[in-house]
Amino acid sequence: MIPIARLPLLMGLALLLLALPAAATERRVALVIGNSSYANAPVLPNTVNDARDMVAALRKVGFEVVDGVDLDKRGMDQAVTRFARLAQDADAAMFYYAGHGLQFNGENYLVPVEARVEDEIGVQYETTRLNDVVTALNFSRGVKIMVLDACRNNPFVTHLARRQGTRSFAVGTGLAPVARAQGMVIAYATQANDVAADGAGRNSPFTAALVREIDQPGVEVATLFRRVQKSVYEATNGRQTPELSLSLLGDFYLNRSETDSDVWGRIRTSEDPAVYHDFIRRYPTSFFTIDARTRLDLLERRADETRERDQLARDFAARERALLERVERAERVRQQAATDLAKRQTEASLTIAPPPGAAARTPPAPSSGTVRPVAIPPAREQAERDRLAEEVSRRDRELASLETEKKRLADERLLMEQAMAARMGTLTMSVPAQPSLSLGATATGPERSLNGRPAAEPATSTVAPGARPQAARAPATRPSAATCSEILLRAQLGELTAQAKEQLQLCR
User: Fold this and answer.
1) Could you report the per-residue pLDDT of 188-207, keeping only the tens digit for each?
2) CA dihedral (169, 171, 172, 174) positive or negative
3) Domains of the chain as residue ranges with CATH
4) Close Cβ partners of 194 (under 8 Å, ≥ 6 residues apart)
5) Rounded to an integer, what distance in angstroms lies between the CA atom of residue 409 and that of residue 404?
6) φ, ψ at 395 (rounded to 5°)
7) What would the pLDDT profile of 373-397 be if each residue is shown by its tens digit?
8) The whole model's pTM is what?
9) How far is the C-alpha of 334 from the C-alpha of 340, rounded, in Å?
10) DSSP string covering 80-119, please?
11) Which side of the chain, N or C, has fewer Cβ within a 10 Å radius?
12) How far from the centroid of its chain's Cα atoms is residue 56's Cα?
């Protein structure tokens, strides 16, 4: 019986084992050999570069690579043995060889750097059979790829030809066709029984094209080698045409990285300009780079527009605050003048002026404890009341003027917004709500003007009973050239709203 204390450990182990198949990644292995410094054959100038560049390219796309340069017979056999062990149950296995190769009696052989091939015995025991590499590839359970940049001129053909008179064997140029197996891709640097060029640059024409195409993400292997064929044919002016033998039941991609199309589909709606700068840097020749630049231009224009609108809002807010302070001061002075005037009028009503020639009548004596008001000459009192009335009237005129200034400021702000919208070429500009300059915090009734009086009621229209009022619609006018330009840009990115689609019709 399992102790209870061990149950959590066993359950965790079981969950881990269940998760392993899902977490496992595709195993890809490769063997890359480049032989250059031959002791008994012409030195090949760029095969080492070919091999090293191929190693870098394959490791970049996820291959575990066994590699070797200038290997002798023992070194090549050991490399093939190690590769065969790694290839067991691998999802993909690839072999690449750059160096001398030959065909003898219809079979292909790869030449180590110290091989001396003078007769049939030298072929059998001093070279590596290509069939041994095919056997190693077949340990893989998945795709098998063989790439042979070895179809160069046979350096031993003269020695072997001398034996043809006494022995029955055939020496051919280039490499013989390899028997194709299910799930295998075989790529020759040139056609079977033909000779490939070494190239005058760092790499052979074939390997240069292959490394370049492997660096392109999302290219299916058959398409990749067809591109290599075209590149080599053009680079050699038709003198060399690679050959491809393919027997795959599905698609296979050497480079599984995201393509420019994948990346663009993921970022095309982003609002971060840095994303588009990175896309343009990574894919300068992509078809979508034009769209990326267009999108980047829109975002930068929006950012400029936002900065200008923010600055405009700050400027108008400052002017509105100054206007509000003037309103508050005018209201305070008016209120004080109105209060003083009302007080004067109240006191005047308590003193009754006598008729001409009669003695002035005074009000009854106040009860004990009250202060008797001081009599003020009537002329002086009247002058003070007139002054206060004029002050109230002047403040009313000032408040009316401030009301006009408020409307003028709102109209100016609207015109500035519209002018900026036309200059920036935006489709829609939402004008921020104008802050109320009226005194009084949160009035729920009719809007009050600056002088405290109710604002004029809006005009009403007569609507038939049961009918829904219809908003007046202005006749459609053609948008500006800047607006039409942006509409077309957004149409290219597929970002048109219903309103923009209507405007697009007007632009045509």
Assistant:
1) 988 765 556 555 678 999 99
2) positive
3) 27-247 (3.40.50.1460)
4) 151, 173, 174, 240
5) 9
6) -70, -35
7) 555 667 777 787 788 888 888 888 8
8) 0.56
9) 10
10) HHHHHHHHTT-SEEEEEEES-EEEETTEEEEPPTT---SS
11) N
12) 28
Report how many helices (DSSP H) and strands (DSSP E) the chain contains, helices first.
14, 10
CA distance 488 to 496: 9
What is the torsional sign of CA 64, 70, 74, 77?
Answer: positive
Question: Worst-scoring range by mean pLDDT, 119-128, 246-255, 447-456?
Answer: 447-456
Half-sphere exposure (CA, 13 Å, Cβ side) for 106? 2
Tokens for 367, please give them: 């009860």
Task: Please provide the distance, in angstroms rounded to a whole number, between the alpha carbons at the two ends of the chain.
Answer: 83
Token pair 């008729």: residue: 355
Sign of CA dihedral 297, 299, 304, 309: positive
Instruction: Report the distance separating Cα 108 and Cα 459, nearest Å.
Output: 99
- Phi (first) and psi of residue 167, to 5 degrees: -125, 150
- For residue 460, the SS3 value is coil
Task: Compute, in degrees rounded to 10, the torsion defined by CA atoms 189, 194, 199, 203.
Answer: 20
Q: What share of the chain is helix, strand, coil (3-state, %, to 5)?
A: 50, 10, 40
Beta carbons within 10 angstroms of residue 133's beta carbon: 24
| One-letter amino acid for residue 192 of the chain | A
Angle (CA) 112-116-118 rounded to 5° is 135
Residue 444 structure tokens? 């729920």
Q: Which residue has the tokens 């070194």?
A: 75
Instruction: Return d(Cα 313, Cα 416) in angstroms, integer.
Output: 10
Rounded to an integer, what distance in angstroms lies between the CA atom of residue 26 and that of residue 15?
21
- According to DSSP, residue 141 is labeled S
DSSP 171-222: EESS-PPPPP-TTEEEEESS-TT------SSSS-HHHHHHHHHHTSTT-BHH
- Looking at the DSSP bridge assignments, the partners of residue 155 are none
